[in-house]
Amino acid sequence: MRNTFGAVFFPFVMCVVFWLICRSKSKGKKAAALIMIFATAVELIAALSLMYFDLRGMSSGICKVAGVGGLGLHFMYTGFRGVFGVVTAFAWFITALFSYTFMKDDTNVIRYDICNLLTLGATMGIFYAADLFTLFFFFEMMSFTSFLWVAHRQTRSSLYAAGTYLGIAIAGGMAILMGLFIVYERLGTLYFDEMYGHAVELMQRGANLGWLFVAAGCMFVGFGAKAGAFPVHVWLPDSYTEAPAPATALLSAVLSKTGIFGILLLTLDVLPTQGGWGAFLLIVGVATMTVGGIRGVMCGNLKTTLAYSSMSQIGFILTGVGMQSLLAELLTAFASAGYADSAEVSEIVTVFGMAINGTFLHMLNHSLVKLILFMAAGVIFTHVGSYDLNQVRGFGHRKPFLLVTFVLAAAGVGGIPLLNGYVSKTLLHESIVKYGELISLAAVNGAVMAATPMMIKVSEVLFLFSGGLTVAYMTKLFIVLFIEKNRDKKVQESYDAKKNYMPVLTKVAIGVCALPIPLIGILPNLVAKPVAEYGLVQFGLSALLEHHQENMHYYSMENLSGALVSIVVGVIVYLLVVRFWMLGRHFSKNHEKGYHELFPAWLNLEKYVYRAVLYTAMPFVLGIVARILDSIVDTIVVLLRKTIYRDRALPYELPEGNYITHTIGLSMERVRLLYYTVMRKEGYTPKNYAHKFAMKSIELFENFHIIERSLSFGLFMFCVGLVLTMIYLLVVN
Fold first, then answer.
1. Which class for 446: exposed (0-12), middle (13-18), buried (19 or more C-beta within 10 A)?
2. pLDDT value at position 671?
């Protein structure tokens, strides 16, 4: 496949093929799993072939599908899109291998696999989108198909989590759509390649960018929610916990990156060089990584701890995106002041490269480690049947493969030197530190920046502290699984006796993900540099990355000191919070010995803020408003009936019927009397037509009111209105 069209739509075609083959109950789950492995393997080959042809200089250009939504769908290939297209296909292939045994005894596997293929196609559509409408189209599709992952078990808790997930997804989608309208109105285009130029033109003209900030804020709600950014992260812990382990691995490793991808496009194309937007992202990123880290340390559930870990790492990535925007503002300020060739500008360029490279690499690193950790959690759940730390305690004893891969992933995400997370976190940390030094120079030259030195200093402290929190909760999980023993000796003996606890395909899936972790950490300039250069060519930053990586010494004492601070903080937090507070709760008579949830239940944002506001407070307030408006309308109607449209008094009060039925009845009676008179007939008797028409009128109006209150009539009127609307649109166009 030499164009992105095939890579995007192949999963949808396979979805139809899969349904035709597996709709018969005679086809087993094994056949369905093999088809999934085949489909995801072909998709991975397709994504790799796109990268191969691009490296050979055979770019496919923009692919179009006309007529969809009136605007059509447009796809393009660039380095960044290509890398995450490969990551997406790779993650689906790896989880398909893992699902071969993990899902074999599950229910509704066919439905799960169909949703899996639909979500794969939608995710590929997002990363290869060439315009904002195409991205929005597939983003909404992905939200609805992945919703069924969360609801898959169909238990009370999974349906509750799925409801929250869907509610946040719908609200986020509406917010993105609102921002899309504003961007189109202000910039006149939705193509990513054109938006940057139009936005720069507005800035050069000195136009008001307020509406662009509003648009970016609206779209951040949708993209930030999918990424798991604070405070729209409330769907994340329950959804990650309730979804099957393969789905959770994809939610964390890939789907969260679609939200980051959207935020990156906003930062680089809609609001380039706008430091105010960068300061906002920096604050959100720091809050996200800190809150996620705190919740991870205080959690007593394996999978929920990993869920909050994902949230915290997304905070690190958002911090990097914010630093890119702030550094772009600083670079623009120095260049416009006539310092384009100064040493300071060269330093800013170097630091800017650190920020964008660190962001890109941490996205990749997080995908790798979360695939391993969530698959490992799935293996543990298969044998234990629970994610509770007290139940899984001691499971990792005498399991060297699980020990090695888990430690590599946990230490990697913790930023331990010689592993992948250390490289990306070092780049992000150094970008914050160097920016703090450069902003002081900007203040001396009279430039006003969006971020203050105090904000940057606090961000650096919280960055290192959050890194320590990562070390603390990963240490907690490591000690629970591999050091401590289960309180029940018989249970521990059964854990120790499990030799074939992990199938071969699962070992292959986890092992393949674990291999790059030490390679990236030990050889960052040989492994990470080429990937970063290729991935970020689309932003025109390959020269910047080359410049800063040639001068980057990852294992200098200056850079190692940041990792050392986080490790020391992690050890202190683990000892104080986990060993002394969490495990020390048995000193209280009201708590049993063991791991417990420490975070106060009354601080649950989802239950006591979002659901309380959206499901209780908002309907109550809107109900009062609607009642007031209804009363106003009734009052206006009564006033009109009493004044302008008051009833005309009849000469005498009618005993029954109305003026029309009375008039028609009398007229017919007079015509009949005239007929008898002219024809000189005898035997005339009044028929009382006024009474008959009055009765028919009452019967007719009663039947009409019954029909009017029926659902069928409402649907019929809706169809009539829809037909009239379609006719109007056809006539206008």
1. exposed
2. 78
Residue range 615-626: average pLDDT?
83
Least confident of 95-109, 123-137, 259-273, 522-536: 522-536
- CB-based burial label for 177 (10 Å; 0-12, 13-18, 19+): middle
CB 319 within 8 A of CB 504: no
Spatial separation of the C-alpha atoms in residues 679 and 690, rounded to whole Å? 24
Note the residue count of the chain: 733
pLDDT at res. 206: 81
9-23, 142-156, 216-230, 326-340: range with lowest mean pLDDT: 326-340
State the chain's maximal CA–CA distance in angstroms: 127
Question: How many other C-beta atoms can be found within 10 angstroms of the C-beta atom of residue 475?
Answer: 22
Tokens in use for 420? 């992948």
d(CA 271, CA 266): 6
The pLDDT value recorded for residue 340 is 56
Q: Is the pLDDT of residue 446 over 60?
A: no
DSSP assignments along 606-643, one per residue = IIIIIHIIIIIIHHHHHHHHHHHHHHHHHHHHHHHHHT
| Prediction pTM value | 0.83
Q: 494 and 86 in contact (C-beta within 8 Å)?
A: no
User: Which token pair is 358?
Assistant: 């660190």
Q: Is the Cβ–Cβ distance between 82 and 124 less than 8 Å? A: no
The token duo for 181 is 């309208």
Nearest to 383 by CA among 372, 394, 373: 394
DSSP label of 314: H
CA 82 to centroid of chain Cα atoms: 20
Residue 630: the pLDDT is: 81
Local structure of 108: helix, strand or coil: coil
Question: What pLDDT is attached to residue 540?
Answer: 47
**Axis crossing angle, helix 156-187 with helix 192-204, rounded to the nearest 10:** 50
Q: Cα(62)–Cα(75) distance, rounded to whole angstroms?
A: 5
Q: How many Å apart are CA 419 and CA 364, to the nearest integer? A: 13
At 379, which amino acid appears?
V
Give the single-character DSSP code of 300: -
Per-residue b/e over 629-639, b at no fewer than 16 CB within 10 Å? eeeeeeeeeee
